[in-house]
Amino acid sequence: MNTENLQIQIKTFFGLEQILAEEVKKLGGKNVDIKNRAVNCEGDLGFLYKINYSLRTALKILIPVFEFKAFNQHQFYNKLSQFEWEQFLDVDQTFAIDATVNSETFKHSQFVTLKMKDAIVDYFQDKFKKRPNIETKNPDIKFHLHIDRELVTISMDSSGDPLFKRGYRKEQGEAPINEVLASGMLQLAGWDGKGNFLDPMCGSGTLLIEAAMIAMDLPAQIFRRRFAFQNWNNYDAELFSKIKEVRINRVKEFNGKIVGYDIDTRMLNAARVNIEAAEMEDVIEVKKQNFFDSKKELFPLLMVFNPPYDERISINDDDFYKKVGDTFKTHYPNTLAWLISSDLEAVKKIGLRPSRKIKLFNGKLETRFLQYEMYEGTKKIHKLDN
C-alpha cells in the first residue's frame, strides 16, 4: 500500500456530502470529490488517522486496494484467489467482509461474501498450509466488497466499528437520532459554537452532546478505544499518538450555554447518563420543561430539534405542530429554529413558511430538515434559496 498518496473513500448519509467535503478540506484532504453518499479524496497515512479521529459526518473510511471486472462467479472467485492477500492480512489474524452489491449478475450480497471468504481462505491454505479465521463481531481486519454491475472493488475498512459509534451513548430513548446525522444537522444549521443552543425536545441528548463537541472542537472519536487501522501491518503508533495530541491541543473553551428540555423524566435521566459519559456535565444543562410553556431565555439562540414523528412515537400531529408554531411565534422572537420531520403534511400546521428545506434520511424514513426564522413584530417570513 502506497502510504504517501492513499486514495480514500469516505461514506456518509444522503444530504451530508457537502458538509463532509468541507470537513475533509479543513483537515487537509487533497482532490476532494463529492459522490452520492460519499466523498473521495487523497492523503497520506497520517491524514487517514486524522480523519478517522476527527470527522463528524463520516460513517466509515475505506481504502480501495483491488479493482477488477467479473462477468460471472467463476471469474469473481478466480480473480480473488490470485490476489496477494498477505499484503493486508496475516494468517493469524481474523477478518470479516462487508458487502454492497448493485448488479444483475451478482444478486445476493451473502453469496458473493461467502465466495470472497472462500477465495481468501483457499489462497492462504494453498500458499501457507494454514488459514485465517472469520470473526464477524470484532475482526482484526475488515474488508469492504463493492460490486457495481461488473465492476468489483475491494477496500480496506480503516474504521472498524461505524463512526457514528462515538462511545458516549450508554442510554437511548424511544427514537434516538444517529450521531452522524445529528452532527450533520447541526452543521447544516450553521452551529459553530458561537452563541447559545437549545434542543427543546432533547430525548437522550445526542444533539446536545454533538453541539458541545462542535463548540469545543473536540474530535468526534475522542472516546473511541480502537480503530481497524491499528491492526494493519503498516500501523504507526507513534504517528497516531502525535496526531491525537495535536488535535486535543486544539480543544477550546466554550462560553455559551447548551440547554435541553424534555417533559419525560426517563428521557432526562438517559440524557444525564450520556452527558456524564461524554464528560459534558459542566457544558450541558438539561431540565424538565414543556417547550409549549417555555419562553426564550438565551440570546442569541439557535434551536435544533428532532420532534416525535411518524411511526416512531405517536402524537396528535396536527395539534402538536400547531403548538410548535404558536410557541415559535409567541415566545421565541428573533430566533433561528430547525426541526426534522417525516410528516410533511403535519408540519404545515406550524403556520410558518420554512425558509429552507433539506432532504435527509433518518434511518429509512425520508425526512425534511426545516428552517424557520422568527422575527419580532412580524409574521412575515423571508424566503431564502433552498
UniProtKB/TrEMBL annotation:
Pfam families: RlmL_1st, THUMP, UPF0020. Residues 47-158 form the THUMP domain. Its EC number is 2.1.1.173. GO terms for molecular function: 23S rRNA (guanine(2445)-N(2))-methyltransferase activity; RNA binding; rRNA (guanine-N7-)-methyltransferase activity. Signal peptide: none annotated. InterPro entries: DNA_methylase_N6_adenine_CS (IPR002052), RlmKL-like_Mtase (IPR000241), RlmKL-like_Mtase_CS (IPR053943), RlmL_1st (IPR054170), SAM-dependent_MTases_sf (IPR029063), THUMP_dom (IPR004114). PROSITE patterns: N6_MTASE, THUMP, UPF0020. This is Ribosomal RNA large subunit methyltransferase L. Keywords: Methyltransferase, RNA-binding, Transferase.
